[in-house]
Amino acid sequence: MSTYSPAPSPSGIEQVIANYVATMVAFPDALRGQQLRGGGAVAEFETLLAERCGFPYCVATNNATSALIALAVVLAVRGRSVFFPRNHWEGSVAAFRLMGARIKRYDPEKVLRCPPPRSGKPAVAVIVGSYHLRINHSSVTILIEDSCRLPGVSVPVGTGSFADVKVLSFGPGKSLSLGEGGAALFRSKMLYRKFVAVSQHPERVSAEFSWRGSMPRMSLNARIHPVAALLGCMLLNKTGLDQSPK
What we know:
Blueprint: H1 10-26, H2 28-36, H3 41-53, E1 57-61, H4 64-74, E2 81-85, H5 90-98, E3 102-106, E4 125-128, E5 142-146, E6 165-169, E7 182-186, H6 189-199, H7 202-209, H8 226-238
Parallel strand pairs: 2-3, 2-4, 4-5, 5-6
Antiparallel strand pairs: 1-7, 6-7
Helix pairs in contact: 1-2, 1-8, 3-8, 4-5, 4-6
């Protein structure tokens, strides 16, 4: 079995970043378009992350909180019940509270059985943390995993998620630390397209979807920095796919 290497050598990272900075200085206009449209290293990072996590669609963001805010907008949570495990990080809760959701708590040690929505009321959305996955699927409309579970890094390769949407953070101290950044992974193409329209720069929306007419009224422009994406690509390529469970 191959030895698992958690990170590339510092000299390798420094060289990649130095090459990017040199290119940025020499060709600022070219890199501006690539950055706003989510091309280059950002697109490669999203592809690698989607493959690793087992989701068909991925959008990298500047942090996980921005991803959660955009997700709350896409899901139109105002007035809807959103369930969180008790003692879940308040930053995640605040993203949905900000968008007018009705915050509910549940005991993560027990199976969550959400009550059916009242007649005429919006359906229920559910947030779960890293190991709080004991959910009765028939009682929820959409399941979101807000966690640091990353196959090959914090959990063994092949450890899948049954969530509809998965949100990851890559800030300091996370399982994959890029200095900044986050990501949202989707199974639904429709949710993915709506999320891109809300969270990314209009140039990406136009380039990716051949958007016609006026741009979406809300574009948070919450894109990850290409240097963070470059580092993410290097780290994901270095985490061996034959890693043994810890």
